[in-house]
Specification:
This protein has 382 residues and is an alpha+beta fold. It folds into 3 domains: 69 residues, MutS, DNA mismatch repair protein, domain I, CATH 3.40.1170.60; 132 residues, DNA polymerase, domain 1, CATH 1.10.150; 142 residues, Dna Ligase, domain 1. The chain is 40% helix and 23% strand. A hairpin with a 2-residue loop joins β5 and β6. It is globular. The protein starts with a strand and ends in a 17-residue tail after the last helix. The structure holds a DNA duplex (18 and 18 nucleotides).
Length: 382
DNA sequence: TCTGGGGTCCTAGGACCC
DNA sequence: TCTGGGGTCCTAGGACCC
């Protein structure tokens, strides 16, 4: 049996636990601090009751409730809490997996009293952090994850052999992890509506109609294996940043300053993780160009901000348009390997020494104590 | 006020190698 | 004589998740 723990309105609950003034109030956590120009990252249950939910643009949320409380996301607080919960769960001595920042999976084998165990976990979490979790138990991770959502918040759902079919029958297929918008459309056209409809199809049928995704779904639905522990390696496969401007601009020096800033941010994170990257991915969005994406692999891996920026500019030249209007952009580095010194060329050595000095200063005196001058232009208004 | 930002995995076509 | 077939890597784009 797998036990899946899903924290309730995680970010919002943490903010309410930390700040008593917010308790019992409709609250949203936005992904950035411009409260009218962001989307809802998490909504408290008081806000959910008013029809507000994550993914919604914040202006729409405020339209539903002008008195909504707003807090900008504080990632480090949530990561800290998540790691503390993980530590607490470790004490149960079961095989344990991080599924995401607010989800954890435990292989509880054939534990005789899953209900009591789930209750115990929930009360321990509440005692320590004053936030609630919902728990699902089932024969595999996909069904356990599904179960955890069926009785939110602060609920427990146990899918047994006896109730399996009836639970699946009353649950729409799109509640399954992996069944998004386009998969839902395809299966609806096939006349499949519920999780049970999917569950009762065989592997060939699902593969024929949904490709690899269908096959994965079949395997995950029917598996009785423990969750794969292969994702124990926590090495990231890519590191990126993106930013959306309040409105589109075609001012090149402004766009370049932003690209440089994003490149520096990405480079800094690569250096923190001791990684270098061969492939640079550039994403641009604008009214004329729509989404422009391109990536390029270079022979020399790097974690130098200026180098990443230069490569991004090279990729941008492919766009073949003089100076398009740009609304949003992103830089992502992939093909990551552990960086190995020494650097080969003099220019690299010199720049390596520079970035090392910058990192030292910023680590000691705080982020952005020292930064490339060009990026200061990003602070100008459009 | 009119949709963020961080990711992973998959697909299909093309280049290239033996 | 004049081109089979297997495999890998790269790229752009899409689907999906939190």
């Amino acid at each position: 049996m797998i036990l899946h723990i899903d924290m309730d309105a995680f970010f919002a609950s943490i903010e309410q636990a930390v700040n008593p003034r917010l308790k019992g109030k409709p609250l949203i956590v936005g992904s950035r601090d411009n409260k009218m120009h962001t989307v809802v990252c998490a909504a408290s249950y008081e806000a959910k009751a008013l029809g507000i939910d994550s993914g919604m643009p914040s202006f729409a949320a405020f339209k539903l409730c002008p008195k909504l409380e707003f807090v900008a996301a504080d990632q480090s607080k949530y990561i800290w809490t998540s790691e503390e919960i993980f530590r607490l769960l470790k004490d149960y001595q079961f095989q344990l997996n991080y599924a995401s920042i607010d989800e954890f999976q435990m292989d509880i084998k054939s534990h005789p009293q899953p209900q009591e165990l789930a209750n115990d976990i929930k009360s321990k979490i509440y005692k320590n952090f004053k936030i609630t979790a919902s728990i699902g138990v089932a024969k595999n991770w996909l069904l356990a994850k599904l179960a955890s959502k069926l009785n939110k918040p602060n609920g427990i759902t146990i899918i047994t052999e006896e109730n399996l079919l009836s639970v699946l029958k009353k649950t729409p297929a799109e509640r399954l992890c992996g069944v998004g918008k386009s998969t839902t459309k395809i299966i609806h056209n096939l006349g499949l509506k519920t999780c049970l409809d999917l569950y009762q199809k065989d592997a060939d049928f699902l593969e024929k109609n949904l490709g690899q995704n269908g096959l994965n779904l079949y395997v995950s639905l029917h598996s009785t294996d423990s969750f794969e522990t292969d994702n124990q390696e926590t090495k990231p496969k890519s590191v990126g940043h993106s930013y959306t401007l309040p409105r589109a601009t075609k001012t090149p020096r402004f766009i370049q300053a932003w690209l440089r800033l994003l490149a520096e941010m990405v480079a800094q994170r690569l250096r923190q993780k001791n990684l270098i990257s061969e492939t640079i991915f550039l994403w641009l969005n604008g009214p004329e160009i729509g989404n422009f994406t391109a990536q390029k692999t270079f022979t020399q891996a790097t974690n130098d901000g200026f180098e990443i920026y230069s490569r991004a500019l090279k990729i941008m030249a492919q766009i073949g348009q003089e100076s398009p209007k740009i609304r949003a952009f992103g830089i992502t580095c992939s093909k990551l390997t552990t960086s190995s010194y020494p650097l080969l060329f003099n220019e690299q050595k010199r720049r390596g020494a520079l970035t090392k000095a910058m990192d030292t200063i910023n680590n000691r005196h705080g982020e952005n104590t020292i930064f490339p001058a060009i990026t200061i232009i990003t602070k100008e208004n459009l």
